[in-house]
Each structure stands twice: as C-alpha cells, then as structure tokens.
Specification:
Layout: E1 4-10, H1 17-25, E2 34-40, H2 47-57, E3 62-66, H3 72-83, E4 88-91, E5 97-98, H4 102-113, E6 117-127, E7 130-132, E8 141-144, H5 148-158, E9 167-170, H6 171-176, H7 188-199, E10 202-214, H8 231-245, H9 249-275, H10 280-294, H11 310-317, H12 325-338
Parallel strand pairs: 1-2, 1-4, 2-3, 6-10
Antiparallel strand pairs: 4-9, 5-10, 6-7, 6-9, 8-10
Length: 347
C-alpha cells in the first residue's frame, strides 16, 4: 500500500510540468511509496501528452485522469481524491515544485504527532535561484486545537492564508468531515482550508521551507483586475453557509464568523480599493448588508482582540456607519494614501 497520494491538477502547463514531475518522482520517500494523481483539466497544449508519458514510465505509481471539458481546480481535486488509496493526502500545483525530502519529513511529522494535518514553510520562486520568503504565519510546533486559546491563536495566524499545497492531511480526516473544494469557481482552496481549520483537533507546523510556489504571471490567480477576483466573496460566503447547514456554529461561531469577516470583507474590500476603485462603494454596500444580516455580532466577536494594525480596525469600523458615497470615497482615498499595502496583502 502506498503511503501518500499526491493530487496535481494540470491545465496548459507543458512548459513547467517536467520540473514539478521530477521533484515528485525523486522524493527521498521513494516513488514506490507514492501515488501521484494528475488531473488534466482539458488542456489545449501538450500537457496531457506529457502526463500519459509519465504514466507509462510509472504505471504502478501514477494515475492520469483526463477531463473532456475544463472544470477548474476544485473539480480536479475532488475527482482525484476519490481515486486516492493512501492514508495521507498531499496537493501540489503543477507549475510549482518541492524539495526532495518534503514528503519524507512531512509524513514523519504527521505520524509522530498523530495530528489531522501538518504544514511546512514555503517561498515565492521566480525560478530555482530567485526565491523570497513570505511572512511567517504562526509559530512552529504542535497545537492542540481542542484548546480554545490555541484554536484562537491558530485561526488568527491562518486567516490571511488558505492554501492546500503546503500541507499533508490524513485522508480519514478529509473524508470523515466531507472536506471538499467547491467546483466551477476559483479560490476553492479558501473554502477547503477554512473547513479543515474548523474541524481540525490537532496540527503541526514544520519550520522548514519544503515547497516552492512559482510566481507565474500567466497563472490563474496572478492576473489582477479580473472579474473572477470576486469569486473570493462567493467562496467565503459558501463556507459560512456550509458551516451553518452542518450545525458547526454552536461550538465554532466566533472562529467561523471571524474567518468570514476577514476574507469576505476586510481583505477583499481592500483589494477592491486597489483593483476596482470604480466599484468600491457598491461592493461596500453589498458587503455591509450581508454582514449585518448574517454576522450581526461582528462588533463583539472576541477574535477582534487579534487586531493589531490600523488597517483591520478601520475597515471593520466602516461597517458601523451608513456612509453615503461621498463620505465613503473620501475615507477610501485617505486609507489608500496612509496605510501600507503590506498591512492588507492577501498572499
């Protein structure tokens, strides 16, 4: 039996695929212990041709799932998870690459600590020699997420960043709690990770860079001023609705509402300020109406204790007032000139 199933969605990545593939098949864990599940999302280049050649080289360890029509990464990841046979699950984006010992180290950590998932550090990489570390989110080590204070600390440090590929999960954890990606929409990893954060009872963070996130200007999430940026709002609202439908609010109300407030409103509205200034007031009105209806206790959420910068405080205070467009735009322009972009950056 394989030790880990690694899921790799692919779409028009023939230029980068070999780098990703080679970093996986040469893992110190040994390819014989790995199951690589590639999903071709109806690529129009030679991606599928490359994938089929990989499968021929390693027929016992590689599965290729070809889609006849483009269904986006969420559907690709969901389909691959149904094929996965190993007790642990990892995710890799097909234009990224990993360190040779990534999965040996991460499996050792998740088995030693018997936690729901582990994560490693990662960097932004323009190429193999040009890399930049993002700000560290949280401290390395084990966290008991059944402890309210540790859960609060974890949520506070992870609200800004929700990615699948720096983590290894127990498959039983994902299937038992029906943790999945929404389909036919971008930023599906926000939904997946936030759901995992709420269900998780234990977690371990490794203080080692093992994953390299390729800064691909042609990638699906790098292009700004695109309508799909607003998918973040739909995905995050879907997360809130799913938590309500599943009865998760009784024990996790504060954490769920804080994740929703920060991603749906705080980070997104700042992005609208910068990328869609002509739509900022109408978006603010939409957000304010949704929050007042669905998260009426936003003023008293104890997670507001985690606010440590002018940006968060100012953005949340905007919800308290019925600003007309002129008032709002005046405040927006003052914020754009006075608050550093780093305070609001959503990795």
């Amino acid at each position: 039996m394989k030790k880990i199933s690694i899921i790799i969605p692919c779409y028009n990545v023939e230029k980068y695929l070999d780098r990703c593939f080679n970093s996986l098949v040469h893992q110190t864990l040994g390819i014989e212990n790995m199951e690589l599940i590639f999903v071709d999302d109806a690529s129009t280049d030679k991606t599928l041709e490359k994938l089929m050649s990989y499968e021929k080289q390693y027929p016992e360890n590689i599965i290729v799932i070809p889609f006849e029509e483009n269904r986006k990464q969420g559907a690709a990841r969901n389909a691959a998870l149904e094929y996965a046979s190993a007790p642990y699950i990892g995710y890799v984006d097909s234009d990224d690459w990993v360190e040779p010992d990534m999965y040996e180290k991460m499996l050792a950590a998740i088995e030693e600590h018997d936690c729901d998932f582990v994560e490693c550090r990662w960097d932004f990489a323009k190429n193999e020699n040009h890399r930049k570390l993002p700000k560290r989110l949280g401290e390395p080590g084990y966290m008991d997420l059944t402890n309210p204070e540790e859960k609060k600390s974890f949520i506070g440090s992870h609200v800004a960043l929700a990615v699948l590929w720096d983590k290894v999960y127990k498959k039983s954890f994902l299937t038992e709690h029906d943790i999945f990606c929404p389909e036919q929409i971008r930023y599906e990893d926000i939904f997946f990770c936030y759901l995992a954060f709420i269900y998780a009872k234990s977690y371990y963070c490794m203080d080692k860079v093992l994953y390299h996130y390729f800064v691909n200007d042609e990638g699906t999430v790098r292009n700004k001023h695109q309508e799909y940026q607003f998918d973040k709002m739909e995905v995050t609202f879907g997360f809130l609705q799913t938590c309500i439908e599943r009865g998760l609010m009784e024990e996790n109300k504060d954490a769920i509402e804080w994740l929703f407030l920060e991603k749906y409103y705080v980070y997104m509205l700042w992005e609208v300020f910068e990328e869609f200034p002509e739509r900022s007031y109408e978006t603010y009105l939409q957000m304010r109406a949704v929050i007042r209806e669905w998260v009426p206790d936003y003023r008293t959420n104890p997670y507001r204790d985690l606010e440590y910068n002018l940006f968060d405080n100012t953005m949340l205070r905007l919800l308290d007032y019925d600003l007309d467009e002129q008032q709002f735009l005046l405040l927006r322009d003052k914020m754009l000139t006075s608050i550093e972009r780093a305070d609001a950056q959503d990795f």
